Amino acid sequence: MRFKKGKTGAEMPHLDLVPLMDVILTVLTFFVLASLSLTRQQAVDVNLPGTSAGATQQQTPDPFVVGMNQQGQILVGNKPASKDQLTQQMQSYLTKNPKGAVILKADRKLPYEQVVQVLGEMRDVGGDRVSLGVEQS
């Protein structure tokens, strides 16, 4: 089998890059404009209240503070109390003060499990208005 030989001295084929660059720049421009339109933030003209304009102080009642000493004894008003007495006093406080809070201040040396147990029992009575008091150091 014989192959035909091409023209001798023929030029090398070349690729014209100008149309290819036009297409690439057109696609790039499309994506740049699309991304700018998606990330544009829209401002809303709203007058926000300041601290001095119409600030009313809502009076919140003093929190009901429950303490636990190093021996794990429950203290209400610096007086020892049983869990039943604590439950009764918490219920009366929360009915008198619907926006009141109950804070448990436990000694730092108490075992964590003991504090969590008492806090859980208090949450059964007071719900989300019961919290654990901590000191900033």
Task: Give keywords.
37% helix, 137 residues, elongated, Nucleotidyltransferase, domain 5
Structure, explained:
This protein has 137 residues and is an alpha/beta fold. It has a domain at 64-132: Nucleotidyltransferase, domain 5, CATH 3.30.420.270. It has helices at residues 18-39, 83-96, 112-126, and strands at residues 64-68, 74-76, 79-80, 102-106, 130-132. It has a five-stranded mixed β-sheet with strand order 3-2-1-4-5, with helices on one face. A hairpin with a 2-residue loop joins β2 and β3 (79-80).
How do you describe this structure in short?
The chain is α/β, with parallel strands linked by helices and 137 residues long. It is built from 3 helices and 5 strands, in the order αβββαβαβ. The protein has a domain of 69 residues: Nucleotidyltransferase, domain 5 (2-Layer Sandwich).
Strand order of the largest sheet: 3-2-1-4-5
* Gap from first CA to last CA: 96 Å
* Helix percentage range: 25-40%
Unreliable runs: none
Q: What's the rounded overall pLDDT mean?
A: 82
What does the overall shape look like? Answer: elongated
CATH third-level topology of the domain at 64-132: Nucleotidyltransferase, domain 5
| Text of the CATH class of the domain at 64-132 | Alpha Beta
Work out the helix count. 3
Please name the CATH architecture of the domain at 64-132. Answer: 2-Layer Sandwich
Give the helices and strands as they follow along the chain: HEEEHEHE
Radius of gyration: 38 Å
Largest sheet entry: 5 strands, mixed
Number of strands: 5
Structural class: alpha/beta
Strand portion, in percent? 5-15%
